[in-house]
Amino acid sequence: MSARSYAVRDSVTMLRRNLRHALRYPTLTLTSLLIPVLILLLFVGVYGEALGAGIGGASYIAFVAPAIILMAATSGSVSTAVSVALDMSEGIINRFRTMPIARASVLTGHVVGSVIQTLISIGLLIGVALLMGFRPTADAVEWVAAIGLLALVTFALTWLSAGAGLAAKSVEAASNLPTPVVLLPLISSGFVPTESMPAGVAWFAEHQPFTPIIETLRGLLTGTPIGNDAVVALAWCLALSPAGYLWARAAFNRDPAPSRPRTLARV
């Protein structure tokens, strides 16, 4: 068996471990879903009529739903940072460093498991939005493209969050580090058009990563113009993914890597 095969096998084992933890302790997953649902209820159910008038009277839920769907991905990043920090605080990461397993598999299991949980949360949030009146016009190809973009964004944010969890000095710090990422969609074109914002805020909103991602999702799901936002959104995702991976790998590999025998202990 090749070294790559061992790494894949070890990653699957770590993925199974993390999914079992998620089933045993579903609080983090439910919390990451609860925040976007509350924001959806607040902005559509309470402020929807007033904010809808500010965008020309169009359906406000069609305007805001893509941004809140994206917020489900950002909220999921908190659970990744916390779960990695928990492993660090309990010493299991140090134990994994001494075990005969591929080092990359530990983080890969965390990241892939968190991506799966976050995508499930996104699916549930879309269901809530549909119950509240969201009526996307996307065809099958556009839905596939939207899901692919959400998966890519989630993957990038999850690697960044894994790095944050490894860099944090405590679980509490890990839960706070991703907060700016969670709140960043609020200062974007997701909730109101950027031209309605003060000049300085509008410039920031137009040039931060989540605005082109939201505009692309909105275009795919509701048929609004996308322009070059799709290219910019993909560029941000392709830049953030390796940055997060390199950060997480560097934080994890602070100690010398142990030699790797040909067996994998059960975890």
State the helix count: 12
| Helix/strand class | mainly alpha
Sheet with the most strands?
A: none
User: How many structural domains does the protein architecture include?
Assistant: 1
| Structural Rg | 20 Å
Per DSSP, what share of the residues sits in E-state strands of 2 or more residues? Answer: under 5%
Secondary-structure element order, N to C: HHHHHHHHHHHH
Q: What coarse outline follows from CA principal-axis ratios?
A: elongated
Question: Roughly what is the average pLDDT, rounded to an integer?
Answer: 82
Spans with pLDDT under 50 lasting ≥5 residues? 255-267
State the separation between the terminal residues, measured CA to CA.
21 Å
Helical amount: over 70%
E-strand count: 0
Task: Explain what the structure shows.
The protein is mostly helical and 267 residues long. The chain is built from twelve helices and no strands. Helix 4 (60-90) runs parallel beside helix 7. The radius of gyration is 20 Å and the shape is elongated.
